[in-house]
Backbone:
């Protein structure tokens, strides 16, 4: 049975201004600068400040004030029943023309030196891995059908350059998408051509085939190259497991020859596709959001806003509001719609400027707290001095929500005297050492990495040996925890770290 009832509920809803602040807060610097340019293009009431004008002119020219919600319903009333005084009260011109409160986004930085350099961040666009291979396919003597097959194969290569799909699946795709019916031999023929492309090894089905292709296409082949090809082709399983004694017995080679074979194989590229993609990856500059400098033992923090334009309200829009305010005639429907549009755009511009200001303040306060918390590390750069720190620790210090701190740490970088570091890498869990002191898990990982780096590679340490070494240094860590940290550090097990 349906029935009606009244009830009161307390709900929390985010205002559009709060949503805007949170979105800007999680943007890294380059995306943030693009967001500002996009807002300037979309909102005609927002423009870049003239840096050639001094600060006094900016303060006089730029109006400010708290934004007022412009309800469209206010402007839908019929003009016949509205008095002249009513129009002024309805639109509230004085609230928009009040210069008491001025948006303070970077107004104090408007007195820059004209000779000061303006640095643009260079962005490089490079050919993708697939386009690089397709360009080589275009230079081969392929028929129309063979080129479509080559395009299909190249499109199915993964980032490492391997072909993970079966030939039968490629044949089905060609028949379904291109109405082309080819045999397994025709696909293998085209694949053989692609495997000869640069970089050598692309189009391989597995690591063994990838290494064999590189050895076979090696221009300066030697006796060691021939031995390496034999080892990879017939004893790859033993080689991958580093059963070197078995290889010497089966292949009838000496220890010295095996060492040369290992050196030859280690020079090969197990992921040829990444050799092309890394070029584009290396060309993407990391722009720090914060800059920390050490001046005679004193840490100084600054926010990187060099390429962010100064913002102000459009003078033409303010002038139009002033003209409407001075006008004594009754506003018609078109004029009221124009005034409503102007007020809406001015509100949006003020809200955007205020959101940028809140973003800057939140970033500075949060980074200052992190810098104070990890003061010893920023002074020395010693990772062993990193304190255990979680999001809640910083949120408590700055009296902000944990989600806000997470947005600040997301994709943000800080430039330190020891390099540019991802901000969220400073956050780590804590563990207790033998003395009962709280230490960062990152500190334990650094010590574990140093121990493995200094071990005897002919007899590498097992996880039990590493556990004992850490216990000697004062860290009581379980063996499974060591295995977990080792995987996070991309360090293989002892058997795979073995070297001659």
Residues:
């Amino acid at each position: 049975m349906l029935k009606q009832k009244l009830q009161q509920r307390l709900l929390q809803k985010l205002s559009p201004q709060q949503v805007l602040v949170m979105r800007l807060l999680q943007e890294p610097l380059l995306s943030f600068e693009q967001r500002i340019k996009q807002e300037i293009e979309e909102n005609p009431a927002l423009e870049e400040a003239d840096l050639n004008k001094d600060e006094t002119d900016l303060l006089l020219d730029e109006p400010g004030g708290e934004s007022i919600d412009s309800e469209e319903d206010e402007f839908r009333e019929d003009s016949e029943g509205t008095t002249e005084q009513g129009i002024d009260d309805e639109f509230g011109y004085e609230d928009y023309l009040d210069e008491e409160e001025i948006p303070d986004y970077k107004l104090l930085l408007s007195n820059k030196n004209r000779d000061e350099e303006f640095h643009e961040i260079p962005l490089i666009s490079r050919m993708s891995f697939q386009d690089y291979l397709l360009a080589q396919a275009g230079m081969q003597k392929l028929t129309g059908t063979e080129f479509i097959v080559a395009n299909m194969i190249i499109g199915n290569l993964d980032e490492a350059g391997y072909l993970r799909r079966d030939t039968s699946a490629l044949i089905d795709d060609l028949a379904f998408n291109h109405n082309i019916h080819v045999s397994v031999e025709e696909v293998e023929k085209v694949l053989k051509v692609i495997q000869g492309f640069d970089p050598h090894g692309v189009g391989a089905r597995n690591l063994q085939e990838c290494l064999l292709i590189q050895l076979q296409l090696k221009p300066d082949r030697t006796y060691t190259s021939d031995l390496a090809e034999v080892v990879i082709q017939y004893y790859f399983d033993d080689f991958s497991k580093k059963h070197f004694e078995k290889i010497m017995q089966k292949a009838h080679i000496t220890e010295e020859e095996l060492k040369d074979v290992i050196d030859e194989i280690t020079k090969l590229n197990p992921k040829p596709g990444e050799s092309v993609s890394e070029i584009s990856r290396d060309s993407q500059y990391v722009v720090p959001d914060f800059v920390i400098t050490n001046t005679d033992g004193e840490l100084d923090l600054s926010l990187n806003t060099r390429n962010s334009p100064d913002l102000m309200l459009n003078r033409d829009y303010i002038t139009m509001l002033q003209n409407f305010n001075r006008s004594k005639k009754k506003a018609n429907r078109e004029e009221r719609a124009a005034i409503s549009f102007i007020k809406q755009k001015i509100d949006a511009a003020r809200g955007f400027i205020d959101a940028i200001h809140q973003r800057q303040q939140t970033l500075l306060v949060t980074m200052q707290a992190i810098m104070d918390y990890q003061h010893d590390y920023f002074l020395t750069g010693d990772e062993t001095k990193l304190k255990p720190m979680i999001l809640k620790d910083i949120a408590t210090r700055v009296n902000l929500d944990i989600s806000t701190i997470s947005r600040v740490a997301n994709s943000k970088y800080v430039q330190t005297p020891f390099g540019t570091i991802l901000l969220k890498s400073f956050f780590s869990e804590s563990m207790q050492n033998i003395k009962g002191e709280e230490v960062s898990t990152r500190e334990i990982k650094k010590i574990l990495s140093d121990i493995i780096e200094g071990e005897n590679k002919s007899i590498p340490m097992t996880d039990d040996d590493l556990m004992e070494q850490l216990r000697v240094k004062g860290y009581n860590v379980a063996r499974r925890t060591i295995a977990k940290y080792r995987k996070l550090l991309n360090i293989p097990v002892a058997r795979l770290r073995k070297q001659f």
Notes: Residues 54-91, 107-111 have pLDDT under 50 and may be disordered. Residues 333-373 form the longest helix (41 residues). The beta strands are 46-48, 290-295, 298-303, 311-313, 413-416, 419-422, 430-432, 438-440.
